[in-house]
Every structure is written in C-alpha cells, then in structure tokens.
C-alpha cells in the first residue's frame, strides 16, 4: 500500500498527489485547497471516480503560483485567475471559473465601489467613507468586502502617497481608521450573543508579533470569526513575547494566529515555541493550531504551522478547527 500520498493515473502513469500530500508540500491546510476549489475554481483538472481529488504536475504548478501571489499581497480572486492563466495559457479547463459564491461581489461592482471609496477618502469625508464601508460589509460580508473593496482601496491610496512625495498621508490614516472602526463595529454586533462553544474548545487568539503595528488584517479576521460565532481574544499590535505566551497558557486556545507584516518582525523561534506549547492531563495533552499570517512569514512555514493565502482561507481553516459552520453554511 502506498502511504506517500502519491497515486498514478491509470491511463498515463503520471504521478498525482492527494490533497493531503499537496497541502503538506505547499504548507497550507487541506481546507484551504478545498476552499480555493470552491471559491475560485482552482481545483484539480480531474478527479478519480468523479470524487477524489488527485493533483497533477500542472495543478501543483498552478497552486505554487497561487501561493506566491497571495503571499505578495495579491487578492486571492485575482491570484487565482493569474495562476490558472500561467499554468494553462490560452486554455480553459473543466474546473475553471465556477459561479461566485453568495456574498462575493462581481469584480466590476467592487472596482467601482473602491473608486468611490478612494474619492471620499481623498476629500477627507469621514462620513461618506464610513457609510460606504458599512454598505460594503452589509452587502457582501466581511470576507468579500475586505478582499475586494477595502484592501484594493488601501493599496491604491498607499501607492498614491508613495508616488506623491509624502502627500496624502492624512488620507491613508483616515481610511485606515474608518476601516478599523467599521470592522470593530460589526464585530461587536455579531459577538453580542455568541452560540454555545463546543465542549473543551478554547478561543482563537489573534496577535501581532512583537514590534508589529499593522492590525487591520487581524481585525478583519476577528470580525469574520465573530460572524461565525467563533470566540476570539484579540490582542492587537506588538504583543510582547512574554505576554503572548502567558495568554496562550491561560486560555488554552484552539488556535493562535500570529501576524507579521515585515520580515524584520517575524520571529520564527517565537512561533515555534507557541506551536509547541501543551496543556491538559497526561495522555490527553493538547496544543494550539498555529497560523502565520502576513507577508513577513516568507518561505515555507515550520513543521506544524500553517500559512493561509488570505482572509477567506484563514477563516475556513479556523472554522473547521473550531467546529463552526463554514462561511455560507446555514446557521
């Protein structure tokens, strides 16, 4: 019996990877691969018996491109389109381009809303910015609003600042503050009456590593998890290592998400220490699922840690680990 996770296509003898084997190779979770297939049509070209995923060399190349693009900050939907085009130029596979899931905006609508949001920010019209952000979350949900409206607009404003000789700093600050305010407002709304937690399940801990001040991606994840009824403990920016370790030891969390925007702040020894922490009685020891978020964690993650490609993938993986309903499922 072959336990390597590699199978052979009967008609060609070409080796094909199972989903588990490919997930280990890429350093993502099987849940992430299934999410990409469902959301963006970036699954395997064929399935054995019509059900089981088997990934060919072309599929692997496509997924490797997807991982590189998302790690560099490209939105997942755009990264998926580019990855499929690079892996299969000029062709269309049967698995390509499924219809968008409920709650995902058409890209044209999102671009138009992003332009309107940027114009309101440039005018320093805080009221209009807040209203447009609220409308995007209500219409599309946190995941799509973050990936298709908020992030592209933040990037566009940041590029304008970088190319204008330090002008528009106030625009970026106002937009960032309004995004944070919107995400926190919806977090409070959704977490007002959370459902009962599964027995023995700890919360999800969200923290920036020491020295890291960028919190918006964690705030978006916090809001999305709250919408699913997953309890969190949000610790925010620049959490000292000793405080993070103490919090993990006290809470016994189901998962710990560590955000690093820059390579200079990403501390792999700290991440490895957190991932190795254990608690519980002898014979039933537990440790947290450890997830490394942000471009600072470049390269392959260490053993036992995951690197999500974006907000949607982090949410799917954490919801599955916690036992909550995945996004879009009836609640």
Task: Note the main attributes of this structure.
331 residues, alpha/beta, 5-stranded parallel beta sheet, 9 strands
| Helix-strand string | EEHHEEHHHHHHEHEHEHEEH
Q: Please state how the strands of the largest beta sheet are arranged side by side.
A: 6-5-7-8-9
Strand coverage percent: 5-15%
Give a short account of the largest sheet. Answer: 5 strands, parallel
Explained architecture:
The chain has 331 residues and is of the alpha/beta class. It has helices at 19-26, 30-40, 57-71, 76-87, 107-122, 126-140, 142-162, 169-190, 216-227, 241-251, 268-276, 311-322, and strands at residues 6-8, 15-17, 47-48, 52-53, 204-208, 232-236, 255-259, 289-293, 305-306. Helix 9 links the parallel strand 5 (204-208) and strand 6. Helix 6 packs antiparallel against helix 7 and helix 7 (142-162) packs antiparallel against helix 8.
Topology:
Layout: E1 6-8, E2 15-17, H1 19-26, H2 30-40, E3 47-48, E4 52-53, H3 57-71, H4 76-87, H5 107-122, H6 126-140, H7 142-162, H8 169-190, E5 204-208, H9 216-227, E6 232-236, H10 241-251, E7 255-259, H11 268-276, E8 289-293, E9 305-306, H12 311-322
Parallel strand pairs: 5-6, 5-7, 7-8, 8-9
Antiparallel strand pairs: 1-2, 3-4
Helix pairs in contact: 2-12, 3-4, 5-6, 5-7, 6-7, 6-8, 7-8, 8-9, 9-12
Quick summary:
With 331 residues, the protein is of the alpha/beta class. 50% of the residues lie in helices and 10% in strands.
